[in-house]
Specification:
- The chain contains 13 helices and eleven strands.
- It folds into two domains: 170 residues, Rossmann fold (3-Layer(aba) Sandwich); 172 residues, Dehydroquinate synthase-like, alpha domain.
- The longest helix has 18 residues.
- It is of the alpha/beta class.
- Helix content is 40%, strand content 19%.
- The strands form three sheets. It has a seven-stranded mixed β-sheet, sandwiched between helices. A two-stranded antiparallel ribbon has the order 7-8.
- The structure holds nicotinamide-adenine-dinucleotide (NAD), the ligand O=C(O)C(=O)C[C@@H](O)[C@H](O)[C@H](O)COP(=O)(O)O and zinc ion.
- InterPro entries: Dehydroquinate_synthase (IPR050071), DHQ_synth_AroB (IPR016037), DHQ_synth_fam (IPR030963), DHQS/DOIS_N (IPR030960), DHQS_C (IPR056179).
- Catalyzes the conversion of 3-deoxy-D-arabino-heptulosonate 7-phosphate (DAHP) to dehydroquinate (DHQ).
- It is found in: Cytoplasm.
Length: 352
């Protein structure tokens, strides 16, 4: 299946196909005719898929690779010089290409390095985690974390091509499958009640698995539409941040060492919904439905942190504009809106 993100001269195709990784070089050759390629990956993904990709690419290009430690700590500002250094050593120029092969950590980090190195070299995303396939590889948000907050240094930098091979998810650890499902559930919550009900109608991820390629395509298509409507996150795109105001604060609180992103998003979606319901801002029973679906896919809904401890990070959220905190709330499942408020929204004594 092919989807196209229409963004004028920054438009690009996304291919979703089982075993597409085995033909990656021919898709890449259609869009890139330069000389050198730098593959950036992590030490869990590269041993599984790196040489398969590199062997194909070597028929067309001079290939280099950089393998980084896996995990969120890698997506840090301190690591950028490692990527720039490797690209310089490989002689990567503006006519060359960076390929991000991995989960969202590699996609965001390699993407930001590609956006900033020489003021921009071409980028292709080959996402290998469920989260990266349904979310982070599409839409051009690239970033690194700062100690003060998630993704606080970054750019909007669209890839030239995204290749999604659902079969690589067979090697993904169950925890990270759940993580990806956190973002899948998010799409249902904000835009697609039918998708939400589909997720709710299964008993477990194993039960949903046969339908996974179409679920991935459905999520990617929602993201495509939102990004086409608001590439630079000034309105509609903020809806993709449902659950994220709390999630990013939770992740930052533990210095990105405890809750993984999808897990934190799950907690954030349930807890913000519960608070909004209590204030009469969301239809009653919505948080309970979210909880039901989180349980099906093995996701957390609380982390034991007092809201008071999360206010600092929430006050640095990128959706905050003109001194206002912009929360994403649901009217009901499938319908979301931006809700301008202040930190006063949060009962500080509450533990979530
Ligand atoms: N740019 C965006 O729009 C966007 C959207 C959502 C999330 N994100 C970011 O994405 C990051 C989280 O991404 P993630 O959940 O993919 O984490 P990740 O990149 O750390 O991947 C999760 C783990 O799975 C391993 N892995 C990945 N693919 C594998 C495979 N096929 N087989 C075996 N192991 C595999 C990785 O080595 C890693 O240990 C966060 O930093 C988050 O902020 C960005
Ligand atoms: O693409 C978007 O826009 C999103 O908000 C997708 C989120 O799932 C993702 O976690 C994103 O990285 C968050 O962006 P940020 O601007 O809040 O850092
Ligand atoms: Zn996210």
């Amino acid at each position: 299946m092919k989807l196209t993100v229409h963004l004028g001269e920054n438009s690009y195709p996304i291919y979703i196909e089982n075993h597409i990784l085995d033909h990656a070089a021919s898709y890449i050759a259609e869009t890139f005719s330069g000389r050198r390629v730098m593959i950036i990956s992590d030490d869990q993904v590269y041993p599984l898929y790196g040489s398969r990709l590199k062997a194909q690419l070597e028929k067309h290009y001079e290939c280099f690779h950089l393998v980084l430690p896996h995990g969120e700590a890698t997506k840090s500002f301190q690591n950028l010089p490692v990527l720039y250094g490797a690209m310089l050593d490989a002689g990567i120029s503006r006519s060359d290409l960076v390929i991000a092969l991995g989960g969202g950590v590699i996609g965001d980090l390699a993407g930001f390095a590609a956006a900033s190195y020489l003021r921009g070299v071409r980028l292709i995303q080959i996402p290998t985690s469920l989260l990266a396939q349904v979310d982070s590889s599409v839409g051009g948000k690239v970033a690194v974390d700062l100690p003060q907050g998630k993704n606080l240094a970054g750019a909007f930098y669209q890839p030239s091509l995204v290749l999604i091979d659902p079969t690589v998810l067979d090697t993904l650890a169950p925890h990270f499958v759940s993580d990806g499902m956190g973002e899948v559930i998010k799409y249902g919550c904000i835009k697609d009640a039918e998708l939400f009900e589909l997720l709710r109608s299964h008993r477990s991820f194993a039960d949903l698995q046969p339908e996974l390629p179409s679920v991935i395509a459905r999520c990617v298509d929602i993201k495509r539409q939102v990004v086409e409507a608001d590439q630079f996150d000034t309105g509609e795109r903020m809806l993709l941040n449902f659950g994220h105001t709390l999630a990013h604060a939770i992740e930052q609180y533990h210095n990105y060492q405890k809750e993984s992103h999808g897990e934190a998003v799950s907690i954030g979606m349930y807890q913000i919904c519960r608070l909004a319901e209590e204030k009469g801002l969301t239809r009653e029973g919505t948080a309970e439905k979210i909880l039901e679906v989180l349980n099906i896919y093995g996701l957390a809904h609380s982390c034991g942190l007092p809201l008071a401890d999360l206010l600092g990070a929430m006050s640095r959220d990128k959706k905050n504009l003109h001194g206002s905190l912009n929360l994403i709330l649901l009217d009901e499942i499938g319908k979301s809106r931006i809700y301008p408020t202040s930190t006063g929204f949060f009962p500080l004594e509450r533990t979530i």
